[in-house]
Write a structure and sequence with these properties.
Length: about 450
């Protein structure tokens, strides 16, 4: 049974990790495309219009890859996690169906009109199609996160005699206190990814002296949006979400921060350390006294409960993995603020485009927002374990009892091979689009 659960979890973790490489770019990129199109309507500068169409090509490629990798992931609800679907389908089926019926079709329909309907529609309606693509993209994220938020903090439900969950308050699903902080944090993190990608492509153009004017536009836009989004990820959205974890999942918070013993009179925030699970302590830690208490309760001497206060059966399944995922996310987020803040400083002084080491830093920073976003999702998912629905349904109770570990391992290996090929194809196609550039003569 343990092998079966392990492979079920590994398969879902792999497929959702690969899948989320694509939506995290499209959600943020859709906003930047709307910004470029709006700037074109406002200024009538053709460079903004060509920039919008260029990035919509990248968006479209990501959108297709997201669809291709998202469908097998959802099928796993019926294969590997059939019991979970049977028990909770009355709740999560609502939001997942709405995401498929409304958000996905809104996004996909108007994406085609944006790509091929500019001359037919005119510029104002063309802008509207771009805005509707953005709206569909963000609505999709909202409905998915509404599902996830219910699993983290279940509200508005009742459990029938047969063990099935049903909604008794539809409004509670969308007024869940977990939802808005999670949505804002996720969307801002997505904007961080898209801003870094845009800045990296722009810096690449400048350094290679190809499409330099577009490169400057992309770097400037990426830096402005990237700094704003990076700050918003930290505060207020990250702060709001962390306070939710303190309030509703205190054992998860203790594991995230590596607090094994309750800290009274002020809790330190750990900058560096390695969790020692056997001895229940952090090795080689570097910490700042009192800061964690102030951040969570606005009091320097507030008590922060440690893992010792809770039954070990309630501990997150992988404390070390949770701790490292959380600290990778926070550490990279801090670096993002520093890099974008420094880039803005040089931009204001009109030295950014001629300072090669910063431009190279923006190029090489491209993969790290992806790592930070995935680490953030791992923090949320590892923090909820061993529960599928927090405090109500354990992971082991949601697995399909008739799917063997051998079958799951076989399909996992198949996914790894297939997704490797898809990944190579994506990089090849994205590379061709970037190499071509937003050339108005060829567009």
């Amino acid at each position: 049974m343990e092998d079966m659960i392990f492979y079920d979890r590994m398969q879902f973790a792999f497929t959702i990790t690969f899948h989320y490489l694509f939506p995290q770019l499209t959600m943020g990129l859709s906003l930047l495309i709307v910004y470029f199109k709006w700037q074109y309507l406002r200024t009538q500068k053709e460079s903004f219009n060509h920039a919008a169409k260029f990035w919509m090509k990248i968006f479209s490629l990501n959108f297709v890859m997201g669809v291709v990798t998202g469908i097998p992931m959802e099928f796993q609800f019926g294969t590997n996690w059939a019991k979970f679907s049977e028990l909770t389908g009355g709740v999560i089926g609502q939001t997942l169906a709405m995401e498929g019926m409304f958000s996905f079709f809104l996004e996909s329909s108007f994406l085609g009109l944006f790509l091929f309907g500019e001359k037919l529609l005119g510029q104002k309606l063309h802008f509207l199609t771009g805005f509707l693509v953005f709206l569909g993209s963000w609505a999709s994220g909202y409905l998915i996160i509404a599902t996830h938020s219910w699993m983290q903090h279940p509200v508005g439900y009742e459990i029938l005699e047969n063990g099935k969950f049903v909604l008794n308050n539809f409004g509670a699903l969308f007024s869940n206190p977990w939802l808005i902080p999670s949505f804002l944090h996720n969307q801002a993190a997505s904007l961080v990814t898209s801003s870094f990608v845009m800045a990296a492509v722009g810096a690449f153009y400048i350094l290679n002296k190809k499409e330099a004017e577009f490169g400057k536009l992309f770097v400037k836009t990426g830096v402005y949006f990237g700094l704003a989004a990076s700050l918003f990820v930290a505060f207020p959205s990250g702060d709001m979400l962390a306070k939710n974890v303190v309030k509703y999942q205190p054992v998860t918070f203790a594991a995230m921060e590596g607090i094994f013993e309750t800290e009274k009179g002020g809790a330190e925030i750990v900058l560096i350390g390695q969790p020692n699970i056997l001895e229940k302590k952090l090795d080689n830690k570097i910490a700042v006294p009192g800061v964690l208490s102030f951040l969570t309760h606005q009091r320097w001497n507030a008590t922060i409960y440690g893992l010792n206060e809770f039954d070990e059966k309630l501990y997150p399944t992988n404390i070390a993995g949770l701790y490292y995922a959380y600290h990778i996310m926070v550490g990279l987020g801090t670096i993002f603020i520093g890099l974008m803040g420094l880039s803005l400083f040089f931009l204001i002084r009109k030295k950014l485009f001629s300072t090669e080491w910063i431009l190279w830093s923006l190029v090489f920073a491209l993969p790290f927002p992806y790592i930070a976003n995935i680490s953030g999702w791992y923090t949320a998912e590892l923090g909820r374990q061993p529960w599928l629905v927090y405090n109500l349904l354990r992971t082991v109770e949601g697995a399909s009892p008739t799917v063997s570990s051998g079958n799951t391992l076989f399909t996992l290996l198949g996914f790894i091979g297939l997704y490797f090929l898809l990944g190579m194809l994506f990089l090849l196609l994205a590379g061709k689009i970037i190499k071509h550039g937003p050339n108005p003569q060829i567009d």
